[in-house]
UniProtKB/TrEMBL annotation:
Keywords: Cell shape, Cell wall biogenesis/degradation, Chaperone, Cytoplasm, RNA-binding. Forms a complex with KhpB. Residues 82-129 are annotated as: Disordered. HAMAP family: KhpA. A probable RNA chaperone. Forms a complex with KhpB which binds to cellular RNA and controls its expression. Plays a role in peptidoglycan (PG) homeostasis and cell length regulation. Residues 82-114 have a biased composition (Basic and acidic residues). This is RNA-binding protein KhpA. It comes from Candidatus Uhrbacteria bacterium RIFCSPLOWO2_01_FULL_47_25. It is found in: Cytoplasm. GO terms for molecular function: RNA binding. InterPro entries: KH_dom-like_a/b (IPR015946), KH_sf_prok-type (IPR009019), KhpA (IPR020627).
Length: 129
C-alpha cells in the first residue's frame, strides 16, 4: 500500500516527538467526509503527542489540514486510545471530581466565596471604561 503524503507527514512528525518511534503507526481511510488518519502510538508517549491542554495535538491537526488543503483534501486526525485506557482515565477523573477536560478547562479550581472577598481590587476600583 502506498503511503500518502498526509499520512507520511503525520508519521514523520510524531516519530520525532515520541520516545518509542518504532511503535508509531497510522491508518488512512477515505470516505465522503474526507480523509481520516488514525494514529497509533505507545501509550507512554500519549502526553508528548497530545501536549499540555492538547496544544500539540491541535497544532498537528492544523498542519495536517494545511497539507490536506494543498492536495484538495479534507484531512482529520484521530489519536487512537484503547477502550480500557480511556475507561480507566474517565473513572480516575470522575473519582477526582474532574471532567475529561480537566478542572474548568485547565484554569484550575474555582475559588470559593471567602477567597473572592480577600482579593485586593483597589488598583482597579476607580478604573473608567
Amino acid at each position: 500500500m502506498e503511503v500518502m503524503q498526509d499520512q507520511q507527514f503525520v508519521e514523520q512528525v510524531v516519530k520525532a516527538l515520541v520516545n518509542h518511534p518504532e511503535d508509531v503507526r497510522t491508518e488512512r481511510t477515505v470516505d465522503e467526509m474526507g480523509v481520516l488518519i488514525t494514529l497509533h502510538i505507545n501509550q507512554e508517549d500519549m502526553g508528548y503527542v497530545i501536549g499540555r491542554r492538547g496544544q500539540t495535538a491541535r497544532a498537528l491537526r492544523t498542519l495536517l489540514r494545511i497539507v490536506g488543503a494543498k492536495n484538495n483534501a479534507r484531512v482529520n486526525l484521530k489519536i487512537y486510545e484503547p477502550d480500557e485506557v480511556r475507561r480507566a482515565r474517565q473513572e480516575r477523573m470522575e473519582s477526582e471530581g474532574r471532567s475529561d477536560r480537566g478542572d474548568r478547562g485547565g484554569r484550575g479550581p474555582r475559588p470559593n466565596r471567602d477567597e473572592l472577598e480577600d482579593i485586593d481590587t483597589s488598583a482597579v476600583d476607580d478604573l473608567k471604561i
